[in-house]
Design goal:
The protein has helices at 17-23, 26-42, 49-73, 75-78, 96-117, 120-144, 148-157, 159-168, 173-196, 198-204, 209-212, 214-235, 244-266, 269-274, 278-288, 290-306. The protein is an all-alpha fold. The longest helix is centred in the first third of the chain and has 25 residues, at 49-73. The model is unreliable at 5-11 (pLDDT under 50).
């Protein structure tokens, strides 16, 4: 999930508790925790409450570690982007070395403690997720390919798989269905942001699709991925994760999402510039709640099944 806040700095060189909290990217962390929790609760194996609490805590710590490492690796990029220049590292309130040290420490703690609290496979997946986001995506993919956000989206899509593994100790098709839902959502979410924030990526010399292929191609990509996403999301209603409640939410939300993508695809740059990208901004705002609604529905269906009230009649 993209952070589009524009918080002003306090004073250069003066770090606060809020600055250190910002290093952990709490907004992204909240999405990671929620999807991991849904993955855990959707698994067919019951989890002891203490194991569940500990696992969620250490998954959150791992997400914070990835955020801090990303803040370190992106320090030079962030200072050239209006959306990120006031983050604590590019603003000079926290040294890059501090962000790196914090990230590495939290990464080690989270992986070891998840291993002890749950199982080794869950710990390996968490470690891989942190490495993929902090190294493969942040240090490499982001700088070399316009498909950076597509491939890099795998990191953000793994938390429900980790949650499932915490509960069951194994991976199953249902866990990868949740992975696919996040994986396909990520590109249209970020590309919509890139449409009205393209100058940021130009200034930072990041090869986002809007920079390398232009806005027209980006609009077509948004429609293509949104179509695939809608098909997958609605089809999931007929799997063991879904049910009538999920189906209703998926149909309504994906109809709105697809309609928004079509409107973006039909736009020309003159119209977009004239109304300050209002259609793109509305689509982006809609995308912010997409995973919340779908994963809440998956959680609700799992709760109903546990009470023998779920499923298709």
């Amino acid at each position: 999930m993209a952070d589009v806040s524009y918080s002003e700095p306090t004073k250069i060189g003066e770090a606060t508790f809020g600055d250190y909290l910002a290093l952990l990217k709490p907004r992204v962390m909240s999405l990671v925790v929620f999807t991991a929790f849904v993955g855990m609760m959707s698994a067919p194996t019951a989890v002891h409450p203490m194991v569940a609490i500990a696992a969620i805590l250490f998954i959150a710590v791992g997400a914070g570690a990835a955020g801090a490492l990303n803040m370190w690796s992106d320090a030079n990029i962030d200072q050239n982007m209006r959306r990120t220049r006031y983050r604590p590292v590019p603003a000079g309130r926290i040294a890059p070395s501090e962000s790196l040290a914090l990230g590495l420490a939290l990464a080690g703690i989270s992986v070891v403690m998840l291993w002890l609290a749950a199982n080794v496979l869950a710990a390996i997946l968490l470690g891989f997720t942190i490495f993929f986001y902090a190294v493969i995506y942040s240090l490499w993919l982001k700088h070399v390919t316009p498909q950076n956000i597509v491939i890099g989206g795998a990191a953000g899509a793994l938390p429900p798989v980790i949650g499932w593994v915490v509960a069951s100790g194994t991976m199953a098709i249902e866990a990868w269905q949740m992975f696919a839902l996040i994986f396909l959502w990520t590109p249209p979410h970020f590309w919509a942001l890139a449409l009205f924030m393209r100058s940021d990526y130009d200034d930072a010399r990041i090869p986002m699709l809007t920079v390398t292929h232009g806005r027209k191609a980006t609009r077509a990509h948004i429609l293509a991925y949104t179509t695939l996403l809608a098909v997958l999301a609605i089809a999931m209603a007929f799997t063991t994760l879904g049910g009538p409640l999920y189906f209703a939410i998926a149909v309504v939300y994906n109809s709105l999402f697809l309609l928004g993508a079509i409107r973006i695809w039909r736009r020309n740059e003159e119209a977009a510039e004239a109304d300050k990208f209002i259609v793109e901004k509305r689509f982006f705002r809609l995308s912010l709640y997409y995973l919340l609604f779908h994963f809440a529905a998956i959680l609700a269906e799992a709760s109903l099944r546990s009470l023998d009230l779920g499923g298709w009649i």
